[in-house]
Design goal:
Radius of gyration: 28 Å
Order of helices and strands: HHHHHHHHH
Shape: rod-shaped
Largest sheet: none
Number of strands: 0
């Protein structure tokens, strides 16, 4: 393996560094973007139950907010439940944009690696062919060993760049789709909470009006 890296020349170093960084990001995103962590099962139902029972105090609200990205969005809605429905939805949307931005963390870097890696390989190919033609110009084609070194550098860097770029691009697309799917689910949960809060507010208003 070391001989292959050595034959590829100095451009193998940034390609290897890109592969290590890509692997680290992929593993981190797999851990961070777990659905159970982003959208805990039964969170909305638990919140509504506590809210109706009058058990949702400031301490529990803080715990909900810090426990998960969905909890952060729902806690924003709960904190603004006494405001107008439109203002509450606006605050929820602002919180949602912040959460989505955090979910997309490092994905741009992953996409950049997928785009740059084959270019690094192509650059190695160019350098390798330059070396080949320089040898041909200097000593002709009588020394196949020297010619083979330049051709090997061209092929190795190209293969290395593509080997990094292809899986990185696949995972980049996968994580993009996963974030979009999680975003849609969180939006649905937030809308359901907003509708529940509006229904409870209307019920209180109707009760107050009936007493008068």
């Amino acid at each position: 393996m070391f001989e292959i890296v050595k034959a590829g020349g100095w451009l193998m170093l940034p390609i290897i560094a890109a592969s290590i960084l890509a692997l680290a990001i992929i593993l981190e995103r797999f851990w961070t973007l777990r659905r159970a962590r982003i959208i805990p099962h039964g969170l909305l139902e638990s919140i509504v139950k506590q809210l109706k029972a009058g058990e949702l105090n400031a301490e529990r609200l803080q715990a909900i907010e810090s426990a998960s990205p969905l909890g952060q969005i729902l806690a924003t809605g709960l904190r603004n439940r006494n405001r107008t429905h439109e203002l509450m939805k606006e605050r929820i949307e602002e919180s949602g944009r912040q959460v989505v931005h955090e979910l997309e963390c490092y994905l741009n870097t992953l996409g950049t690696i997928a785009a740059v890696s084959p270019l690094l390989g192509l650059l190695g190919t160019v350098f390798g062919m330059i070396q080949v033609f320089s040898v041909i110009t200097s000593v002709g084609v009588g020394n196949p060993h020297i010619l083979a070194g330049g051709i090997a550098k061209a092929l190795i860097t190209t293969a290395a760049g593509l080997s990094v770029a292809i899986p990185t691009l696949v995972f980049h697309r996968y994580f993009r789709g996963l974030v979009e799917k999680l975003t849609v689910e969180m939006e649905d949960q937030a809308v359901r909470l907003a509708d529940t809060l509006r229904g409870m507010k209307n019920a209180r208003s109707a009760g107050t009006g009936a007493q008068k």
